[in-house]
């Protein structure tokens, strides 16, 4: 039976989420997969919600994950799935698409983008990562 691990303690993340009284895990590790809680655009230096335009919010949300991934010895190249929730999907989708393309390289992660009535922020992201990079995935072609 695989061992499940829980990470629930990273100083910069703890500082940021404490203000929202959240009581959830940062991520669970199960075998080769890391399944993350969602994050809005948070400024990791101040622990507050991002200020500025949508791109700042989106990049700060990705920066949260990058910090967590690096603490686990991984990088954005290990992200295999991105779920994106946008407060204003029609307005923000083109900007989100540009941020996504700038922050991830091919082969790109699977992705889903939907509109949502968010509790805080303009964007919330949810990642799944693997201990193997996307670039090392075996390419399977249909016959």
What does this structure look like?
Belongs to the RutC family. GO terms for molecular function: deaminase activity. Keywords: Plasmid. The protein is α+β, with helices and mostly antiparallel strands and 143 residues long. The chain has a single domain, classed as 2-Layer Sandwich (60s Ribosomal Protein L30, Chain: A), CATH 3.30.1330.40. Helices cover 29% and strands 28% of the residues. It is built from three helices and nine strands. The chain has helices spanning 11-18, 54-71, 89-103; strands at residues 4-7, 27-30, 33-36, 39-40, 42-43, 48-49, 79-86, 110-115, 123-130. Strands 1, 2, 3, 4, 7, 8 and 9 form a seven-stranded mixed beta sheet that branches. Strands 5-6 form a two-stranded antiparallel ribbon. A hairpin with a 2-residue loop joins strand 2 and strand 3. Helix 2 (54-71) packs across helix 3 (89-103). The longest helix is centred in the middle third of the chain and has 18 residues, at 54-71. The protein is globular, with a radius of gyration of 15 Å. The model has no long low-confidence stretch (mean pLDDT 88).
């Amino acid at each position: 039976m695989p061992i499940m691990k829980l990470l629930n303690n990273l100083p910069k993340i703890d500082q940021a989420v404490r203000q929202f009284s959240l009581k959830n895990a940062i991520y669970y590790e199960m075998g080769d997969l890391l399944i993350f809680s969602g994050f809005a655009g948070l400024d990791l230096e101040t622990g507050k919600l991002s200020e500025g335009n949508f791109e700042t919010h989106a990049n700060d949300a990705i920066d949260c994950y990058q910090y967590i991934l690096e603490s686990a010895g991984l990088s954005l190249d290990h992200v295999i799935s991105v779920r994106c929730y946008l407060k204003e999907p029609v307005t923000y989708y083109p900007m989100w698409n540009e941020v996504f393309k700038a922050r991830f390289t091919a082969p790109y992660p699977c992705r889903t983008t939907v509109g949502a009535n968010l509790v805080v922020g303009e964007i919330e992201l949810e990642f799944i990562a693997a201990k193997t990079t996307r670039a090392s995935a075996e390419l399977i072609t249909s016959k």
